[in-house]
């Protein structure tokens, strides 16, 4: 929660929201979460996926500012994408703040394309979200490894 509030001060998820998400992160559940830790065991990144039927959605992805730019975000996104393929998702969606160009570039490198805007999605700051989609996951799974390793 400390990292969540540091990275997303205007629109951080509550403890209750995370408990609700993690309650569904069990074998057979609709959620999949991964956590990255440093050598001392401190959480430096995390990401979550919701997969229901053929639809996948990146719920969250975060990397501590001291570890940004080192490829950790790409590793977390690659894990979520691979899990969505394992679960049979035909597409993967996500929302990203319209002012978060760094994250948008990461998603574009993985093949995500803009498909719409959700007005006022991030509250209470009332910031719009860019909706991005990655289609045909099963056929692109080998390409994703190339994006990550390249």
TrEMBL record:
It comes from the Bacteria. It is an enzyme of class 2 (transferase). It is found in: Cytoplasm. It catalyses: N-terminal L-alanyl-[ribosomal protein bS18] + acetyl-CoA = N-terminal N(alpha)-acetyl-L-alanyl-[ribosomal protein bS18] + CoA + H(+). Residues 1-137 form the N-acetyltransferase domain. Keywords: Acyltransferase, Cytoplasm, Transferase. InterPro entries: AcTrfase_RimI/Ard1 (IPR006464), Acyl_CoA_acyltransferase (IPR016181), GNAT_dom (IPR000182), YpeA/RimI_acetyltransf (IPR050680). Its EC number is 2.3.1.266. The keyword Cytoplasm applies. Belongs to the acetyltransferase family. RimI subfamily. Acetylates the N-terminal alanine of ribosomal protein bS18. This is [Ribosomal protein bS18]-alanine N-acetyltransferase.
